[in-house]
Amino acid sequence: MMFFDTHAHLNFKRLTKILPEVIDQAHQSGVKYMVVPGTDEDSSQKAVDIADQNANIYAAVGIHPHHAFETADQEEGRTLDSRIQILEKLLQIPNNKIVAIGEIGLDRHSYEETKYQNYHVDGSFMNRQKALFVAQLQLAKTYKLSVILHNREAKDDFLGLLNDNWDQFFSGRIVFHCCEPDETLLKYATDHNIFIGVDGDITYNEEKQRFVKQIPTELLLLETDSPFLLPEPLRTEKKYPNTPANIPLIAEFIAGLRGESLNDLAKTTTENAMRLFRIG
Predict the structure, then answer these.
(1) What is the C-alpha to C-alpha distance for residues 111 and 45, in angstroms, rounded to an integer?
(2) Handedness of CA 197, 13, 34, 87 (dihedral sign)
(3) Each residue of 152-162: pLDDT tens digit?
(4) Percentage of the chain exceeding pLDDT 70
(5) Distance between CA 81 and CA 69 in Å, rounded?
(6) Is the pLDDT score of 138 beyond 90?
(7) How far is Cα 17 from Cα 2, in angstroms, rounded to an integer?
(8) pLDDT at residue 191, as a whole number
(9) What does the pLDDT read at residue 96?
């Protein structure tokens, strides 16, 4: 049985020292393929490095909306254009294994833990997020890459902006990462041939348990969002961090909810991921 973890932050510090072990355990668990998304310029570079050094691991590069907080005025040197140029340099490296732009999107959540002083969500910050989102969607079109989309508590703006910038190119090339259990998001996804990523929180979030039953089989993807969203029973046992090796746990839980065999779910979600990222 073969699995694909479509969203694993192997580039985050929590996993750096144990990375060889994490990758080995994933392979032993049947997780053959992984995609490592970037969340800023540095983590995007790390994602590319990890992908280049490991078979069947691929990278996505992008700037998470939370990190749009860094994009200020010209005097501070963190302009939109300068940040996009850094991503473009990564995309122009020959023979790399970048398969997507991501994770990108919009986020209205007020994070209690953040590296940014005076962090707050206001109109100015959301405007920076939106500009960054649109610029990175254009990057995906220019370089013919798939897109990993993040949306948290920003559904209306998120779908509005996506709709305003929709191009037929994006059909079958986008995933709603860790998708909120929302009927409007589901309808938009099914209408536009957008994949939906399901993570370990499915094992303890009842809304998501109801939601996953409605996702069309051909649009379903498996994710861990490692090192976050540890699935049960590991969450109760506090066996942190989450790693790609836990994909079979998530898959088995979803298969039970949907009344499908684990083998069929593994096969379908792996094929879906290969199609999304144009692998093979």
Answers:
(1) 25
(2) positive
(3) 999 999 999 99
(4) 97
(5) 15
(6) yes
(7) 26
(8) 98
(9) 78
Instruction: Give the pLDDT band of residue 110 (cuts 50, 70, 90).
Output: confident
User: What is the longest distance spanned by two Cα atoms in the chain?
Assistant: 57
Report the alpha-carbon angle 106-110-116, nearest 5.
90
Alpha-carbon distances, residue 149 vs 76, 170, 233 (angstroms)? 27, 12, 28
- pLDDT (0 to 100) of residue 75: 42
Amino acid letter at 144? K
Angle between the N-to-C axes of helices 123-142 and 155-164, in degrees from 0 to 180, rounded to the nearest 10: 40
Q: How many Å apart are CA 80 and CA 98, to the nearest integer?
A: 21
Q: Which domains does the chain have, with CATH numbers?
A: 3-277 (3.20.20.140)
Q: What phi, psi does 253 have (nearest 5°)?
A: -65, -45
* Residue 106 pLDDT > 90: yes
- Report the run of H or E that residue 91 belongs to, with start and end: helix 80-91
DSSP labels, 181-199? S-HHHHHHHHHHT-EEEE-
Token pair listed for 237:
């046992």
Q: Is 123 helix (H, G, I), strand (E, B) or coil?
A: helix
Confidence check: pLDDT of 149 > 70:
yes
End-to-end CA distance of the chain: 18
